[in-house]
Amino acid sequence: MLIRMIFLGAIGLASTSATAGDPFAAGDAKIGKQMVEKHCVSCHASSYGGDGSSIYTREDHRVKSAKGLIAQIRNCNTNLGLKWFEDEELHVASYLNKTYYKFDK
User: Fold this and answer.
1) pLDDT tens digits for 20-36?
2) CATH number for the domain including 74?
3) Would residue 21 be called left, alpha or beta, if left means φ above 0 and alpha means ψ between -120 and 50 degrees?
4) How many whole angstroms separate alpha carbon 94 and alpha carbon 32?
5) In which residue ranges of the chain is pLDDT below 70?
6) How far apart are alpha carbons 55 and 63 in whole angstroms?
7) Nearest to residue 42, comparing CAs of 97, 80, 94?
8) Do residues 62 and 69 touch, judged by C-beta distance below 8 A?
9) Which domain holds residue 65?
10) CA-to-CA distance for 88 and 40, rounded, in angstroms?
11) Residue 40 carries which DSSP code?
12) Distance between CA 98 and CA 103 in Å, rounded?
């Protein structure tokens, strides 16, 4: 019984440590990618050229932290009237963080 409890505890610890550094672990990056492609790329491309991704990689980018990333996503969501729910914002944040920013918690 004790061995089983230790084993289950170790599994729980391993699963939490896998996402411990991901500030947007509740988001789904695959869904976020689809949302970015549908709602963000055309605006970013018209402003920054190419595929619009330079908005994330330019030297003077505004987003400097995980909190800043979600704030910027919420700003775009509000200004563009996208009416995304919080979980949808997290999907986008998860994708952008995994693809460009690499912020830890």
Assistant:
1) 689 999 999 999 999 99
2) 1.10.760
3) alpha
4) 7
5) 1-20
6) 10
7) 80
8) no
9) 22-101
10) 13
11) T
12) 8
